[in-house]
From TrEMBL:
Originating organism: Volvox reticuliferus
The protein's name in its UniProt record: Armadillo repeat-containing protein 6
Keyword annotations from UniProtKB, A to Z: Repeat
Keyword Repeat attached: yes
Superkingdom of source: Eukaryota
Signal sequence, start to end: none
Length: 472
């Protein structure tokens, strides 16, 4: 049975919040700060979503906030009242005051600044500014950077889609006059717009924007920044991460892009061009996109027949000491190993030994352990000969050590339970090797410590090990 998304919280309006604050001040003689804190606590207890509310001191006077004033300035300039370059600079400066640099995630705008900009019409104003700046590259790049910053908040992403933002990006990407920098910035904005917004994903595919990016990715001289951004868009539209619609078209997008636009072959060509050891970040983006696009047996087989599995293994051998590339390679191979054809090819090419090596190289990384175990589990499923090969390669010790080292990580424990079950289900001769290493106690501990993820698979592993009371 498919897991249901959690029920969405009701959205609190700015008016309701401001009224509660005013009531706290007038009825209970609170200071404004006390009234705000009390209102926040009360609405949180009631289960409201406060993401669209400005809770700071500016809550009652949003129009005079510097961000709102700057948004109005851009709107006025787009209407011919004032200088557009100066208005864009003013908005950039006002947003910078509320921007922080997140480790590994780039610049991000505070929630309240996002709300004020949204209520001030920043998205519509910047889209109009983009149209008026098409012939001025420097100015256009500044507007696209502002759009990317604003798209960190879900409601502005919805507003971007509703205001025909995807169509604007398509025009920029297909315009022969657009520079490489503009196309890279447009792709970066497209990726940001598609995150958790199903409608944006569908429009990016239906408008031909993703097909255009795949075509441009085939250029042998495509800059790495563009490669990373374009792959990010392809990955976004093939990822189901919007909990609001009843269903996602991510799987269908992967099939359409692979069948009609040769997406998996394009990605293989890019993977072969990117120097993974020197450009690990770009390599990770390409590999992550391969994992998403390889959504069914047919696509996996096409990638394999073209040499894609061997290309991924080559990257893994060369870059195993680099944790992020190692994890991305293992993740792509894990997805590909759902195919029975790929399972045997991987086993013959030394993937089992390579997975064990990766876990050993990154013994402190629960993420590497989880994805390596997942790869091995997929490879060995219904493949008793590969299970024997895995036992000879040290996988049993690897499983036990991973369970001991990462006892607090539920996802690692679950994969270890699954691998144990898969290895002994059709190979009873392997049971004593697991039991003498103390796996029974580890499985029972995992069931108790992580009941949601491990109770079912832990019980199944204990049962297939031939143990009594496996449900205890």
């Amino acid at each position: 049975m498919a897991q249901a998304w959690p029920k969405a919280k009701p959205k609190l309006t700015q008016e309701a919040f401001d009224e509660a604050v005013s009531s706290n001040i007038e009825d209970f003689d609170m200071s404004r700060l006390e009234a705000i804190k009390s209102a926040i606590e009360e609405f949180n207890v009631q289960g409201y979503d406060l993401s669209g509310v400005v809770t700071d001191m500016a809550g009652n006077d949003l129009q005079s906030h510097p961000i709102a004033v700057a948004c109005q300035g851009v709107r006025d300039a787009c209407s011919g009242q004032g200088s557009l370059p100066e208005a864009i600079d003013a908005l950039y400066s006002s947003l910078q005051a509320s921007t922080s640099e997140s480790s590994g995630a780039g610049a991000s705008l505070s929630q309240e600044a996002s709300v004020i900009a949204h209520k001030g019409g920043a998205m519509q104003a910047l889209l109009e500014a983009s149209k008026q700046s098409k012939s001025q590259t420097h100015q256009l790049l500044k507007v696209l950077k502002l759009l990317q910053l604003l798209l960190g908040w879900l409601e502005t992403r919805d507003a971007f889609t509703d205001a025909q933002g995807v169509e604007l990006l398509h025009d920029l990407l297909t315009d022969e006059a657009s520079s490489t920098e503009v196309k890279t910035a447009a792709a970066t904005v497209a990726e940001a717009a598609a995150r958790q917004v199903e409608e944006a994903k569908c429009r990016l595919v239906d408008s031909g924007t993703v097909a255009t990016l795949l075509e441009q990715l085939q250029a042998p001289d495509a800059p790495l920044d563009f490669v990373g951004a374009a792959c990010g868009v392809v990955r976004s539209v093939t990822t189901a991460d919007d909990e609001r619609p009843p269903a996602s078209k991510a799987f269908m997008h992967a099939r359409v892009l692979a069948k009609s636009h040769a997406a998996i072959r394009v990605l293989l060509g890019v993977l072969r061009r990117v120097p993974a050891a020197q450009e690990p970040a770009t390599a990770c983006r390409v590999l992550g996109t391969v994992r998403q696009v390889a959504a069914n047996e047919e696509i996996c087989r096409e990638f394999t027949d073209d040499g894609g599995v061997m290309a991924c293994l080559q990257v893994l051998r060369e870059c195993a000491p680099q944790r992020d590339v190692c994890r991305a390679c293992l993740g792509a191979l894990r997805q590909l190993a759902h195919s029975d054809t790929v399972k045997q090819l991987l086993a013959e090419a030394g993937a089992v030994e390579q997975a064990v090596r990766c876990v050993d190289l990154h013994s402190g990384s629960d993420e590497v352990a989880e994805v390596a175990l997942g790869l091995l589990g997929n490879m060995m499923l219904r493949q008793p000969d590969i299970c024997c090969k895995a036992a000879e390669a040290g996988v049993i010790d690897m499983v036990v050590e991973a369970m001991q080292r990462h006892s607090g990580r539920a996802s690692v424990q679950r994969q270890a339970c699954l691998v144990t079950r898969i290895m002994v289900a059709r190979n009873p001769e392997l049971r004593p090797l697991f039991l003498e290493r103390g796996v029974e106690a580890l499985l029972r501990t995992a069931k108790v410590a992580h009941p949601v993820l491990c109770r079912d698979v832990g019980s199944a592993a204990l049962r297939d090990l031939g143990l009594d009371n496996y449900n205890d």
